Amino acid sequence: MPAYDLQILSGVGWANGINESGDVVGITFNSPSNPYDIGNCATWWIPTAFGYGPGTQGWLGGQLQKVNSAGDAVPQKFDTMEIWNILSNASVATVPKDAGQVFWDVNDHDTALGNFGLIYDWHSGGPGTQLAPLPGQSYILGGGINNHGDVVGKSGDHGFFYSGGKMLDVGAGELDDINDNRLGVGFSDGAPVYVDLSKPSPVFQTIPAPTGTWPASALGYTYPYATAVNNAGTVVGIGSGGKAPYFNYAFVYQSGSGGASTAVDLNTLVPPGSPFLWDAFDINDVGQIVGTALIGSGLPADDLAGCVPYVASPRGTLNPATLAVNGLVVDILAGVIQDGGGTTTGGPVPPWGPETWIALPLAQREALLSFAISNLADMMSDRGARLQIQKIAAESASRALLQRTANREFKLSPAQKEQMAKLRKRMRR
Description:
This protein is α+β, with helices and mostly antiparallel strands. It is built from five helices and 30 strands. The protein has helices at about 325-335, 355-360, 360-375, 385-405, 415-425, and strands at about 5-10, 15-20, 25-30, 40-45, 45-50, 50, 55-60, 60-65, 70-75, 80-85, 90-95, 105, 110-115, 120, 130, 140-145, 150-155, 160-165, 165-170, 175-180, 185-190, 190-195, 205, 225-230, 235-240, 250-255, 265, 275-285, 290-295, 305-315. It is globular, with a radius of gyration of 25 Å.
């Protein structure tokens, strides 16, 4: 399992979902002493170049469950069923309230799943498809929906899989999520499980506990289960058997060949001294995990004020949530100064701080900044903007280097000469 960087998000509450861009949705409490107070707000956090800024609070009295790649999120609201776009901060679809039902999940095609089994495509409109309970079962609960429109959930005390208009009884237990490869995850027989639903006769597979077997939760009101799975087959969830006072913990598990032999406590993979990661609710294809961290000694049931949302990202991923551009610039500048060519340091970087930077002559600083900006622009997907920025950076670097050369204050290393040649090519585009 990789090591993870951890970022605690703003507000008192927790994070429920994350999309491939790193957008996070959840809830924050304005009145944490009363979890049913109208001061509870649906909240979302959008990553910037410098990590996650303050969350945006939406309406009172609700929370956001999941968010797709377009920023369309599904809220739990008391009065309506709707889809809310967090990027435009506006409702994009509203469905008449249906017997207390709320949307629970949404895929990238804007097909939403209700907690009582309603499947609704807001692009086509209409009443949607209401799933019926399995034979012999009295109710149905939606769990998750993938980009093929496959649905998993729970009917009575059995997990179900719905695909192509057909319902399949998977056996005793429940299913809470399904990825695009039709790998489902959930709970069965007192343990978190996964199941390959692409097979004709799928069977629950128990996720091995970190040590021995999964004990019943010491808290009495929770149990170990898998909450989400990404398309790489990485599973996250809530484990049991942890130490007091928290007892439960967030876990991560890699299914398939070459994966971890057991579930791993996510707390062992984040930097020492981090807040305790009590649960994990979702994971995206980058491998970023979101959930609830605890900053006090109390549990969520009796100390909401100690709950904070978190994002755990695999170390080394080039994601705004985990690698601030400031750090990347410093890395590039240190590489340039060490004749590393400006793209990587190629080894340990000597101490580098404001004093070192200020001590450099102005023209040299201008040249190094231009190198850094040009390298950062390589990460932009907008080709027109990328070329425009790199052209300006190349012109600035060229002027600075000509000034420095004329003053005979320094000579370019071979690696810097090569990079300068690349910058001049960009100027001619």
